[in-house]
Amino acid sequence: MAKTLFEKIWDSHIVVEENGRSLLYVDRHLVHEVTSPQAFDGLRLNGRTVRRADLTFATMDHNVPTSDRSLPILDQTSSTQIKALERNCKEFGITLFDIHSPNQGIVHVIGPELGITLPGTTIVCGDSHTSTHGAFGALAFGIGTSDVEHVLATQCIMMEKPKTFEINIQGKRKNPHAVTAKDIILSIIRKIGTAGGTGTVIEYRGETISELTMEQRMTICNMSIEAGARAGLIAPDEKTFQYLRGRKYVPQNYDECVNLWRENLKSDSGARFDKSFTLGAENIAPQVSWGTNPAMTTDVTGTVPFPDEYGKGNPEEEKGAEKALQYMNLKSGTAITDITIDRVFIGSCTNSRLGDLMEAAKVVKGKKVSSQVRAMVVPGSQLVKKNAEEIGLDKIFKDAGFEWRESGCSMCLGMNPDILAAGERCASTSNRNFEGRQGTGGRTHLVSPVMAAAAAINGHFVDVRELDLN
Amino acid sequence: MKGSVIKYERDNIDTDVILPGPYLKIHDYAELATHAMEGLDKDFHKRVKPGDFIVAGKNFGCGSSREHAPIALSYSGIKAVLALSFARIFYRNAVDGAFLLPIEIDESAYKDISDTDSLEVDISTNDIKNLTKNKTYKMKPFPELIGKIIEAGGLFNYKP
Ligand code: SF4
Q1: Residue to substitute from A73, A83, A145, interface B, most B β-carbons within 10 A
Q2: Is residue B107 domain-resident?
Q3: Number of residue pairs across A and B with CB atoms under 8 Å?
Q4: Gap between the Cα atoms of A196 and A194, Å rounded
């Protein structure tokens, strides 16, 4: 029978199956400081060990400061959490990329970078954006702390089989430097809604997807969770194999693996998906979110909607939009390009990789950040930072007036000192514009790195299709 | 289970408002509880009583995988969240850690139940009795696996 890529990976990882619920084997388990301490406590309490410490990798990313790393961490509670992870990894024999490691970074940036993420594998992490790793054709699920403990103890996860959802992106973008992967995924979420993918694993397909770089594919899969999906997947191809070749943790028999992956890891023609959605790429414009969830997004050429226009007859949606506009302090009918901003954040597991920074730097080069704006770049990992510095991106950003920081989650979730003040408005390359996400009372507009860079220079949103980005 | 309702007529109540990021560093569950729902309702912790239910719209708990969200609600005294639908990770966290029951209800029950109503929930019959309005609604039954994990008292007590 013709199978989807998801079904192939799922089936090959079943340990036991009974009435649609399965115990799945986990190939890679990624751990960070925020969702793991209670799980390790649980292990100790019950006298359990880590079943496969060799398949478990840890880093610290969520609450680490992005300022000078040679200084001690001032925040006592952050420091406690970081020390707890150090202790736990030592006790249980887990590889840790700590705050001083050249491999430290956001867990979803370093997994692929180090070749821990591999096609056809199952990956879990106590973090919802684990869906990112699906860009390599890995089945990657975000889980909570109880499940983290379960995986540490058993190397397995108990799940009900998700449904399959095919999203086809057809045609080609007119200006791929201005209309980025971020704009594609925001357009998708805007159309299918924040619960549009609930209970499904999305496979992204089509011409535009094959055209994207691995980093751009990660941006797409990263935000699958924002559509409520359990995971996102893209079938691996030559770009995938090329990207991973030579990375630190890829298998020794890499060429053999590639042959197997090439042959097996795709949806068979004629495979049936439970759900399907098609989006044309030609008419996608740069996107800007105006509300308090990622579906509340519009074209940069658009205006802030009226609640009834957004609700389209659904009173709940209408009320949601009203509340969102109130929180965002925006007036319906305002042109998106008239919205002025106070802060710019280029970073997060969605958009903090070398390619993102290179694209943003094109906009910034030789210009100055608007005097109204405080802007920062937070590379996704130490390796991204190093590579960027080698080609002089740090200088371009710093000369323009950006802050150039150490790697981590930073202002994506406001757990460290990088936060918005109440009422501040931020153009952010992260993935969530929830109320208070970047700081209590802070207002987030989700955009691509080029859009964020252009907003930093101009002090308001601009249509980056009007810039020369080639 | 009997308790009174705290109703939020909202869809997409996300984990960042249920338990804002800065508090993810807190280990003490009782202290976490004092920040529950802080992003949406500053007075929640003053108002909530042991045994209370939250009633909300679609996609409750969307966003982050932080188990701190169901933990904070649970240690505030919330026994169950009754919502039109749930985000998956929140749902599994609530069940796996046996923190609270994520109960799916239909539109008519959602509309009918008001803030401060007294409810009695029986998951063996799937009945939700509204003691204030003297009405009964049906909850959506738990899927088999979830029902069994709940019965066992969490993932670690569950033996397939
Ligand atoms: S960058 Fe943001 S979304 Fe990504 S893992 Fe860190 S906190 Fe989560």
Answers
A1: A145
A2: yes
A3: 142
A4: 6
Contact B11 A440 (CB under 8 A): no
- CA dist B142 and B102 (Å) reads 9
Q: Which residue of B has its CA nearest to A412?
A: B21
pLDDT of residue A55: 98
* Alpha helices (H) in B79-122, listed in sequence order: 88-96, 107-112
Interface touch A436/B25, C-beta < 8 Å: no
> What pLDDT does residue A395 have?
98
Does residue B30 sit within a domain?
A: yes
Residue B27 has pLDDT above 90, yes or no: no
CA–CA min distance A414, chain B (Å): 6
CATH number at residue B91: 3.20.19.10
Percent of chain A with pLDDT over 90: 93
Residue A70 has pLDDT above 90, yes or no: no
Number of domains in chain B: 1
Neighbours of A431 (CB within 10 A): 29
C-alpha–C-alpha distance, residues A470 and B13, integer Å = 41
Asked whether residue B160 is domain-assigned, the answer is: no
pLDDT at residue A2, as a whole number: 96
CA A354 / ligand 1 centre spacing (Å): 17
Q: Kindly tell me the sign of the dihedral angle through the C-alpha atoms of B65, B67, B69, B73.
A: positive
User: How far is A146 from chain B, CA to nearest CA, in Å?
Assistant: 6
Determine if the pTM surpasses 0.90: yes
3-state secondary structure of A202: strand
